[in-house]
Write a structure and sequence with these properties.
The structure holds three protein chains of three kinds.
Chain A lengths: L1 H13 L9 H13 L2 H10 L2 H14 L9 H37 L3 H5 L13 H8 L11 H31 L5 H13 L2 H14 L6 H26 L2 H9 L4 H12 L1 H17 L2 H6 L7 H10 L7 H22 L1 H9 L5
Helix pairs in contact in A: 3-18, 5-17, 7-17, 8-11, 8-13, 8-14, 8-16, 9-11, 11-14, 14-17, 14-18, 16-17
Chain B lengths: L19 H6 L1 H21 L16 H6 L3 H32 L6 H13 L2 H11 L6 H7 L16 H26 L3 H9 L4 H12 L1 H17 L2 H6 L11 H9 L5 H29 L5
Chain C lengths: L5 H4 L4 E12 L2 E12 L3 E5 L6 H9 L6 E6 L2 E2 L10 E4 L11 H11 L4 H14 L15 H13 L5 E5 L7 H18 L2 E6 L2 H7 L2 E6 L2 E6 L1 H6 L4 H6 L6 E10 L2 E6 L7 E3 L13 E7 L5 E2 L8 E12 L3 E8 L2 E8 L9 E6 L5 E4 L7
Parallel strand pairs in C: 3-8, 3-9, 6-7, 7-8
Antiparallel strand pairs in C: 1-2, 1-4, 4-5, 9-10, 11-12, 11-14, 12-13, 14-20, 15-19, 16-17, 16-19, 17-18
Helix pairs in contact in C: 3-4, 3-5, 4-5
The chains are: A mainly alpha, B mainly alpha, C alpha+beta.
Chain lengths: 361, 304, 378
């Protein structure tokens, strides 16, 4: 630390007259290179790397607090530094509190009884913790006409999510592979339309899709909701796999072709085994996306297959008499449990997923 | 060069190798791209010019549906809400996201714990977000009541019951959910910046905050653009959050275009009007995203 | 440019023949009406700086790029539209392109498995190739556990097991450090002598080209500039580009005029100060001379003679040394000749210093004379 301090001082004295402007040409020249780095593709490695940068940043920290030219006594600097660090941690902790409170409130409310809730103490811990509301939410709460809890929705969501995730990843990986390595007529145009499709609000295409599915007699079936998720997931899955395969050396593909492998052999034996990391990302991304979907499930799944999110909203809006906030929050927790578990278990893959799959929005 | 070479003709040039396997393999993609994102979009736009009620008819009425749309108070309220929501939501997310990212970049302890907390809301459904914040903002049992019970009896914070402020209650919930995403993107962007930049700025004696603001932030333009595009796309699509948190109310004070369209094609059974609204939703996307996609993916070629 | 006449071709068919090949890439012509005939068992090097089209040409031969126009024949068979695997070729890449998830053995055998070769045959060929390339102890390792040199040997092995007539090398040594590069270069040369296959080798490194090649094709902007033996290319470059590209340190170019005086050709250097006249009486001109024209006279630094011996040569001048670059085995010294920068190689023993004056001379018959306008050899 002391050594760095000394260095900082001397460089400060030497450079006192330099204004921020003088750095800009150098900065600008480098920035072109940095711009070329796709934010989407590099997230994972960067988040966990960079001791060198961190070191530079740490050193800069000290610089940041000593704008003035005069070297100050080291003790004063260190005190300032400490306040600076304190400020950073203070702000971060407050922010964390803000982000964490809704989850906390959800959990404690779900474990209270209604009389305790009516006392109106939102943040206080349950006096007599009980899982009664969870049990009710799972198996007895009314989701409309029936009162069998949210469990049916849970299993419906599983029935919808598993095949949709598998199918969309399978198709997305084939698309990405074909687009990255095989030039074929119309590929760019098709892919352009698909990327554009990622931005098209569902509202714009939903009505014709309803009509279409009704025409072929699939409307309101499990098949239709799985197809819909697969189709709407295709832009992001294709983009994800295309970018990944494009980042592999093209010589690998050339070598495989020279070795005589065909379209499917290269895909199955060379590329797919190499795509494991991106498949994990895709699974996480699609599982949370499809599990969390509300609109498509509401419209296409049919009344027998309504997913958990729709059932949850029904529980909350269907009120006979008193609103049971504890049951509502328990049902909410149950619905959030799967994506939360995926998130907590997947860690950096999730970050990478949202960064590369960010287009979905 | 040898002149004898060309004698055997150039018959080969005409018959290109026919790559049918990639074409076959990408049939689902072609069907989706054309079937959904071209045919369905065009079909929707066409229906906007018809008298379609519950089922499609091709009884064309010109721009009547659009005229009626822009005289519907619910649509006007929806558009206004979307603008307020969009501007504030994007601004808050960018600000909070960047600030948190910069602070996280200060080599803090337990960085991954902080990241986990900031990002978990993004893993959850908009329905969940809406319901939690509905509960938190409940006037008689939520935050307002809690703060009053601490002794501040005049404290008032129940936006969801006040038509003038309900949309801000929605914005809080949405920003709570999405700021972490922007934080993660920005943090990745910060870590991706050439460490020589920091060395150069340090040697030149530029204070840290100035380096962030005047040097690093401009270099992160691609990340900022990505963030704005993402947030913008989710603004236009916002539906579940509204349905869960406010149901569009009180009154029509939190209606949004996405909900307008769905309500008109389902409950109201007026798909012609709904498609006119959908066409209006498509327009900004077409104008903003269309040229970008064309430039980025169609014209430039398959390999980046 | 080929040495063999049309008649001779019948009894000595080419291993690879490229006829009037054009290649467009996004509307840009990358290769234009390119012709190239490669003999059986020949080691041909495609040499050029990056972007000259040499790797592109190799990819066309391999069938990895569809050509716009023209024909490619391998072993007298038109393969222009054949799949890469049906062309009787194997290829080694700069980045090795080993399949990361497979062991060395699986990498080597992949092509044979795809082709449906029986197990014993695969076993036989893989162990033979592994033995040739000293890979036997590494067979069960994955590429990540190998050094750069080992990886490239595996890549060569993968080409070897396919038992084909034509080997294509795409800058195979460029990713290796200098020492390994030299080792593997020798290994490749030995391999060629053992197998006697046709080898087409792309590189930007002139040392590799000069040491390995039977013939070198120097390329620039999609056109072959010169196709000849390393010796001829070094001694008689056909144009200014080739002369400048080959040789290290680079050739000196003196600007001047080519004039006929008393029906004898002379090179008169452009100079404001000291004059320099070079008699070109013994220079092997390509064509008859007509009148005077602007030319550049190219002299290799290693062809310059220093000291008393220089007086015996047609050109001899006393010059002052400006810069000295010791290079270990010898020394490169810079001076001015007729006011123009001029370098020459000397013995390190001379121990030159800036400011020293000495006699230098060269034989114009070994020099190269280029048209200043077109750059062609005169």
């Amino acid at each position: 630390m002391a050594k760095i301090d000394g260095m900082t001082h001397s460089s400060l004295i030497g450079r006192a007259a330099v204004t921020p402007r003088s750095v800009s040409p150098r900065v600008r020249r480098r920035s072109t290179a940095a711009v070329a780095v796709r934010a989407t593709a590099v997230v994972e490695t960067q988040v966990d790397e960079g001791t060198a940068e961190a070191l530079a940043t740490a050193a800069l920290q000290q610089l940041g607090q000593t704008d003035s030219v005069q070297p100050k006594p080291a003790s004063r600097r260190r005190t300032q530094q400490r306040y600076g660090r304190l400020g950073i941690y203070g702000f971060l902790l407050l922010s964390a509190l803000f982000f964490a409170i809704p989850l906390y409130v959800m959990i404690i409310t779900s474990m209270k009884g209604m009389p305790e809730i009516r006392l109106g103490q939102l943040f206080s811990l349950p006096g007599d913790p009980t899982f009664a509301a969870w049990i009710k939410a799972w198996s007895q709460a009314c989701t409309g006409v029936t009162c069998e809890g949210i469990q049916a929705g849970f299993f419906n969501s599983i029935k919808i999510t598993l095949p949709s995730v598998a199918l969309s990843i399978l198709i997305g990986s084939i698309n990405g592979y074909a687009l990255s390595f095989w030039r074929f007529r119309g590929a760019n145009l098709l892919f352009g339309i698909l990327v554009f499709g990622a931005f098209v609000p569902y509202q714009v295409v939903i009505y014709p899709m309803i009509i279409g599915f009704r025409e072929v007699g699939l409307y309101g079936t499990l098949t239709s909701i799985i197809l819909v998720h697969t189709m709407f997931g295709m832009p992001i899955m294709t983009l994800l796999f295309r970018n990944y395969f494009a980042s592999l050396p093209s010589e690998l593909f050339k070598a495989a072709r020279i070795d005589g492998a065909g379209f499917w052999q290269i895909f199955l034996q060379i590329m797919l085994p190499l795509a494991v990391p991106i498949i994990i990302v895709a699974v996480i991304l699609q599982t949370t996306n499809i599990w969390n979907d509300y609109l498509l499930g509401l419209i296409f799944a049919g009344s027998d297959n309504l997913p958990m999110t729709v059932q949850l909203n029904n529980i909350v809006t269907t009120t006979y008499g008193v609103r049971e906030y504890n049951v509502n929050m328990a049902a909410t927790m149950l619905t959030a449990a799967v994506p939360l578990a995926v998130y907590l278990l997947s860690g950096k893959y999730f970050v990478r997923g949202i960064a590369s799959g960010a287009v979905k929005g | 060069m040898s002149s004898s070479a060309s004698q055997s003709g150039r018959a080969g040039a005409a018959r290109k190798r026919w790559q049918w396997r990639p074409l076959l393999a990408t049939t689902p993609m072609a069907l989706t791209a054309i079937g959904i994102f071209v045919v369905c979009v065009v079909y929707s736009v066409v229906l906007a010019f018809t008298r379609t009620k519950r089922f499609p008819t091709f009884d064309f009425v010109g721009f009547d549906q659009f005229g009626r749309l822009w005289h519907t108070s619910r649509w006007l309220a929806s558009v206004e809400n979307l603008l307020i929501f969009g501007v504030l939501f994007i601004a808050i997310c960018l600000l909070v996201g960047f600030l948190l990212a910069v602070l996280m970049d200060q080599k803090v302890r337990m960085e991954s714990a902080f990241r986990t907390v900031f990002l978990y809301p993004y893993a959850m459904s908009f329905v969940v977000t809406g319901l939690v914040w509905q509960w938190m903002l409940e006037p008689s049992l939520g935050i307002q009541n809690e703060v009053r019970s601490w002794g501040w009896s005049s404290f008032s914070f129940a936006p969801l019951t006040d038509p003038d402020f309900a949309i801000y209650g929605v914005i809080i919930a949405a920003a709570w959910q999405s700021s972490g995403l922007i934080m993660a993107l920005m943090l990745a962007g910060l870590r991706g910046i050439d460490s020589d930049i920091w060395k150069a700025a340090r040697v030149d004696g530029i204070p840290t905050w100035q380096t962030y603001l005047f040097i690093v932030l401009p270099m992160m333009r691609p990340v900022v653009v990505t963030s704005v595009v993402l947030l913008g796309a989710s603004v236009v699509k916002v539906y579940d959050l509204i349905v869960a948190q406010t149901g569009g109310g009180p009154g029509i004070s939190t209606e949004v275009p996405a909900k307008f369209v769905i309500d008109y094609i389902t409950e109201r059974g007026n798909a012609g009007q709904g498609m006119a609204a959908a066409t209006m939703m498509l327009l900004p996307i077409l104008l903003l995203v269309g040229p970008w996609v064309y430039n980025e993916y169609v014209r430039r070629g398959a390999r980046p | 440019m080929t040495h063999l006449s049309t008649a001779a071709r019948a009894d000595n068919p080419y291993s690879v023949a490229i006829r009037d090949l054009d290649l467009d890439f996004d509307g840009v012509r990358v290769l234009r009406s390119l012709n190239l005939n490669i003999h059986k068992g020949e080691f041909l090097v495609l040499l050029g700086s990056s972007g000259c089209g040499k790797s592109t040409l190799l990819n066309c031969i391999a069938g990895l790029l569809d050509i716009t126009d023209g024909q490619i024949l391998i072993n007298d068979r038109d393969v222009t539209w054949e799949e890469p695997k049906d062309r009787d070729i194997a290829m080694v890449f700069q980045s090795y392109a080993l399949y990361p998830q497979m062991t060395v053995e699986k990498n080597l055998s992949f092509a044979l498995k795809v082709a449906g070769v029986n197990k014993e045959e695969i076993q036989r060929r893989v162990s033979k190739a592994a033995e040739m390339l000293h890979l036997t102890p590494l067979l069960q390792r994955k590429p990540a556990a190998l050094s750069g040199g080992q990886r490239q040997r595996v890549a060569i092995g993968r080409a070897l097991v396919r038992d084909v007539d034509v080997f294509l090398f795409d800058e195979p040594l460029s990713n290796l450090d200098a020492k390994l590069r030299t080792e593997l270069r020798v290994e490749i040369k030995r391999l060629h002598q053992q197998l006697n296959n046709t080898m087409i080798y792309v590189t930007h490194d002139q040392i590799e080209a000069l040491t390995l090649a039977d013939r070198i094709a120097i390329m620039k902007e999609g056109v072959i500039q010169q196709l000849d033996t390393p010796q001829t290319i070094y001694n008689k470059p056909v144009n200014r580009f080739v002369a400048g590209f080959i040789g290290s340190p680079g050739m000196n170019f003196l600007q001047g005029q080519l004039q006929l005086q008393d029906s004898q050709p002379w090179f008169i250097a452009d100079s404001a100060l000291a004059g320099l006249s070079v008699p070109l009486t013994h220079y092997p001109f390509c064509a008859d001379l007509t009148g005077s024209k602007a030319v550049e006279l190219g002299v290799r630094p290693e062809h310059v003679v220093v000291g008393e011996a220089a007086t015996a040569l047609p050109v001899c001048q006393e010059v002052g040394v400006e810069i000295v670059e010791p290079m270990g085995s010898d020394t490169l010294a810079w001076t001015r000749l007729a006011g123009q920068a001029f370098s020459f190689r000397t013995d390190t023993e001379l121990n030159l210093k800036p400011g020293d004056r000495l006699l230098i001379g060269f034989d114009p018959a070994r020099a190269s004379c280029f048209d200043a306008r077109s750059g062609e050899r005169i």
